[in-house]
Amino acid sequence: MNKAPVLLVIAVVVLVGIYLLLTQSSKFVTKTTPSESPIVAITSSRVDYSAGFAIFTNGTFRIFTAVMYHNLSKDVYIQADNPNIVYVKKRGITWNDFFKTLPFKLTKDCLTTGTKQTFCTNINERLKFYVNGKEDANALDNQIETGDQLLVTYGNENEAQIQKQLQQIPNIK
Description:
173 residues; alpha+beta; 28% strand; 2 domains; seven-stranded mixed beta sheet; three-stranded antiparallel beta sheet
């Protein structure tokens, strides 16, 4: 009996096993410190940090549950389970960077929604931005930081109404 085909099959199986072992092990990162033994951690597409936001137009809370708003960028996105939480995966992302990933337009003076409704600052109503409870006309230029809360509001709300809107933003710890 010729042993060559059997040895060839065994060699192929061993090589495939080694290949699979090597490719699977690249999914692990080993960290060592001089005084500790190696720590093996599974890498994943983890969220680096998150922040909360809310948008109101004339007192109406805008929701982003439609699929057209979710997971549109690998760097910054929202998800269906809580579309008022922004997940940031890359440092240096601004609020403007985030809003540019969504299918609507937002500037310092105008909001055009995904359904093409337009809300622009005029004599009677203003588009205003609040970061962490404080009005900030340049909020779109701010980098999103861990736990930030952004309110975008359009209308002529008084301070009490603004405070109620601020309470609608998810509090990320």
